[in-house]
């Protein structure tokens, strides 16, 4: 067998070597080629790896810029008239967009506000177990300084109710009272 190996090797002295599989022989021949050219064995793989990492990083940076560019903005729309006798209808139309339908502060516009809307279901709990009806009415009318509302992001419903009712104070009071009573019904038990 040595004679046939010697002939196949161009007359060089043959030695018995272990048998390699196809992929191992391919890797060995790539190593020999790169060593003959004076390049490190892994340089092509490193270049491919670095190039792939660069593409992934660029894609991630582009996605981050795109999400930072989209800020939520509260769209101001004209107030639509609701029934002054239905506190629930008024709450749904005027308050739920920020405070959420459940009153916990998770409405669709909440994330666009500088200060998160308060959890209206905790008003009684935070007031020693008694619902603060006068404070809520004053807040709805815009008569109380409410630091949680920051720069008056919450509309002053009193003046909006006044314009809806064509200046009838009794209707404004009815709206404020019924809205406050509905908020009272949302209190955590």
What does this structure look like?
By secondary structure, the protein is mostly helical. It has two domains: 16-68, no CATH class; 87-185. It is 51% helix and 0% strand. It contains seven helices and no strands. It has helices at residues 2-8, 22-37, 43-68, 87-99, 133-141, 157-164, 169-185. Helix 4 packs across helix 7 and helix 6 (157-164) packs across helix 7. The chain is elongated. The N and C termini lie far apart (94 Å). 14% of the residues are buried. Residues 1-8 and 10-14 have low confidence and may be disordered.
Estimate the global geometry from the Cα principal axes: elongated
**Pattern of helices and strands:** HHHHHHH
Tell me the Rg in angstroms. 37 Å
Count of beta strands: 0
| Backbone structural class | mainly alpha
What would the average pLDDT be, to the nearest integer? 76
Number of domains: 2
Low-confidence stretches: 1-8, 10-14
How would you characterize the largest beta sheet? none
Per DSSP, what share of the residues sits in E-state strands of 2 or more residues? under 5%
The helical percent reads 40-55%
Give the distance, in angstroms, between the N- and C-terminal Cα atoms.
94 Å
SS element count, helices: 7
Keywords:
mainly alpha; 7 helices; 2 domains; 189 residues
Q: What would a concise description of this structure say?
A:
The chain is mostly helical and about 190 residues long. The protein is about 50% helix and about 0% strand.
């Amino acid at each position: 067998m040595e004679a046939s190996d010697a002939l196949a090797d161009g007359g060089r002295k043959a030695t018995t070597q272990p048998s390699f599989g196809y992929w191992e022989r391919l890797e060995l021949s790539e190593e020999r080629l790169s060593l003959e050219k004076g390049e490190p064995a892994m340089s092509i793989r490193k270049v491919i790896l670095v190039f792939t990492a660069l593409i992934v990083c660029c894609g991630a940076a582009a996605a981050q810029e795109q999400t930072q560019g989209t800020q939520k903005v509260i769209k101001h729309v004209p107030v639509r008239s609701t029934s002054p006798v239905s506190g629930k209808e008024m709450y749904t139309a005027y308050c739920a967009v920020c405070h959420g339908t459940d009153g916990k502060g998770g409405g669709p516009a909440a994330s666009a506000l500088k200060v998160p809307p308060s959890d209206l279901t905790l008003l009684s709990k935070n007031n020693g177990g008694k619902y603060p009806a006068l404070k809520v009415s004053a807040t709805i009318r815009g008569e109380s300084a409410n630091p949680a509302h920051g720069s008056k992001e919450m509309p002053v419903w009193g003046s909006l109710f006044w314009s809806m009712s064509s200046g009838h104070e009794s209707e404004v009071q009815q709206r404020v009272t019924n809205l406050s009573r509905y908020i009272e019904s949302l209190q955590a038990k």
